[in-house]
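Incident log, structure service

09:12 report received: a user says their structure output differs between two submissions of the same chain.
09:20 pulled the input from the user's history:
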Amino acid sequence: MSKQVEGMRRMLLILSKVRRRGRFVPKDELLEYVNTCMTERYGYGEISSRTLERDIADIAELFGVGISFSRARQGYFVSEDYSEYDERVCELMMNFDLLNALDSDANLSSFVLAEHHRPLYSEWLMPLVKAIRDLHPVEFSYVNYRDGGSEKHFAVLPHYLKESNRRWYLLAYDGAVMKTFGIDRIRNLEVIADKTFKRNTDIDVSELFRDCYGLWNDPSMPVEDIELRYDALDGRFVKSDPIHHSQRIIADTPDELRISLRLRITNDFVMELLSRSRSLEVIKPQHLRERVRRVYEEALKRNS
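09:34 re-ran on a clean worker, output below:
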């Protein structure tokens, strides 16, 4: 296993231990935690306090999370609230950590069964995290699948990374317009390290996606009231993994589950409905019911 992966694992452990604001972690406790986890999980030898301090410096450089030491409290702490950013980075790194472990540990792969479909061009993720953090513009070629795989050059101001349906997307300003780019379609990424930009902090990201399923949001589309029916079996899955945050239960009986939703009826949403279509019945709106019916009819013709 490379030194880079070993160091990344240590940094992830440090972040998970001290990232909560207001908490002071004694140096001996932090060092013992990192050494115990690295030994028990991965079989590494113990590190010194000097290596721990280097890792903390690297965390500031790579993740932009400053970890300080308080002599008065005799503990490490973070002075700012990084919780939302840090949790997403930690989740991302844990995914990579598991995949790296599966690649190198035959015993682990015998009982951890992951899908080995690594997203293409996932190496762009960490450079984009760093570009967003350090306010650097980026340039890249972007593949248009609908136009025979043609590529177009973009120079944009990166603002957010968002995950949707196991794919990562970049939200960035192209001029005055915020656009969405699938990271698997980005080629030849270049971070313009000698330039910086002022980040738009007035964006309400949660509001931006509140009325849509997944990533694609078209404000010109109306927000509609939707009612769906499933049988009891499918209903159990729909209850355990809600389709949208607006989901509400209308009826839950031994025979059926009826739910209501309120969102824009985008193509992504329709595709999600079709993924569990075994017992799906669209109650309303009528145009959605007809749209789903047409999909079934066309599929029947193709497969007759």
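09:41 both user submissions now match this output. Likely a transient worker issue. Closing.
09:42 reviewer note: Residues 102 and 110 are 9 Å apart (CA to CA). Residues 105-110 have pLDDT under 50 and may be disordered.
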